[in-house]
Amino acid sequence: MNPRAIDRTIAPLLHIEALRVRAPGPHPASGQSIPLVHGVDLDIWPGERVGLVGESGSGKSITARSIPRLDPRLTLSGSIRVAGREMIGATDAEVRDIRGQVVAMVFQDPLSALNPVLTVGDQITESLVQRGVSARRAADEAARMLDRLGVADARRRLRAYPSELSGGQRQRVVLAAALIGQPALLIADEPTTALDVEAQDQVLDLVVQQSDDLRVAVLLITHDLGVVAGTTDRVYVMRAGRIVENALVDDLFARPSAPYTRALLDATPTLDRDPGVPLVSVAALGLPAETIDLPNGAS
Ligand SMILES: Nc1ncnc2c1ncn2[C@@H]1O[C@H](COP(=O)(O)OP(=O)(O)O)[C@@H](O)[C@H]1O
Ligand SMILES: [Mg+2]
Question: Among 46, 87, 45, which residue's Cα sits nearest to residue 63?
C-alpha cells in the first residue's frame, strides 16, 4: 500500500508535549495522587490517521480523553495544542468551543454513548441545533450524514430510538453525531471493540472513508495492532503510561524497534498463522502490564 501524502512540514493539528496526568488518589500505599501518564509526546497532522496502540491499562484512554479535557478530576501538565490553541489551562468556555468545533470523540460502547429516550435524529442534530442551525436544516444534514455512513432509509431512521438499532447501526449514529459538526480531528477510542467481526470491519472502513472524504484527521485507539494495520498512516505504541515507539505504520510492521512492540506483534493473530502454534502473550515475555508507577515524589 502506498503511504498517503501527509504534509508533516506544516504545523500539526494536534501537538501533545510532555503530557503528564494524575488522578486525585489518594494512592493506597503513598496517600498521594496517582500518576497515570508520564510524559507523552504525540503529534497529528491535518488529515492524518494515527493509531495509539497498547495493552489494556496502558493509559490510552486517559491520554485520549485528556485532549478534549473530558475528566475534570484529573490533573494535567505539559501541553496539548489543538489547532494552535492550548487546552491545558483553557477556560471551560474555550474547552467547549474546541470540543464542539475542532475535536469530536467516539467511544467503545455506542449504547452508553446514546441517550435511550431521545431519537437518533435528536442526538445527531444536537450539536448543530446548539450552534443555532434550524431543526429542519439539521435534520436534513443528519439524514445526509447517515446516508453517507451507509444507513438505509436514513430519513426514517432519524425517528428511531437507539434500542431499535443493531450495534453496528448505533456506532454509525455515534459517528454521524461526531462528524456532523465537521471536526478537524476525530478521536475514536476502541470504536469497534464492542461490535461483532463483520460490523467491526464495516465501521473501520467507514472511519477510513469518511476521513478521506471529509479530510478529518483520526486518532484511532485500540489494543489490537491488527486494527491499525490497514487503516492508519502512523502509529504510537504506548506502555505503562509512556510512548515506547512512534513509526510509520508500514515501518512498524516491517521493523518494530521496541521490544514491547515486537511482543505485541507476536501476540497479534494473523490470517496465515499456523493454528497449531499458540499465540505468544506479552506477559509470557516478561513484559507485565504494570500501569501505575508507585509515587516516589519524582514522577
Ligand atoms: N479516574 C481514574 N483514577 C485512577 N486511576 C485511573 C482512572 N482512570 C483510569 N485509571 C487507571 O489508569 C490506567 C490507564 O487506564 P486507561 O487509560 O483507561 O487504559 P487503556 O485505555 O490503555 O486500557 C489503568 O491502570 C486504570 O485503572
Ligand atoms: Mg481504554
Answer: 87
- Identify the DSSP state of 278: P
Residues 40, 63: contact at Cβ < 8 Å? yes
Element (H, E) at 103: strand 103-106
Q: Which atom of ligand 1 is nearest to the CA of 71?
A: 1
Closest CA to 125 of 98, 158, 101, 97: 158
Residue-wise pLDDT tens digits, 164-184? 999 899 999 999 999 999 999
Residues having CB closer than 6 A to ligand 1 are: 23, 34, 36, 54, 56-62, 291-292
Per-residue pLDDT reduced to its tens digit, 73-84: 999 999 999 999
The Cα 157–Cα 151 span in angstroms is 8
Ligand 1, closest atom to CA 55?
A: 22
Buried b (16+ CB within 10 A) or exposed e, 35-61: bbbbbbebbbbbbbbbbbbbbebbbbb
Q: At what angle do helices 135-148 and 167-179 cross, to 10 degrees?
A: 130
From 27, 36, 58, the mutation candidate for ligand 1 (largest count of ligand atoms within 8 A of CB) is 36
Which grid coordinates are listed for 230?
Answer: 490497514
The protein residue whose alpha carbon is closest to atom 2 in ligand 1 is 23
The answer to whether the pTM exceeds 0.85 is yes
Most confident of 22-36, 136-150, 276-290: 136-150
CA of 59 to the centre of ligand 2 (A): 7
Check: CB of residue 164 under 8 Å from CB of residue 158: no
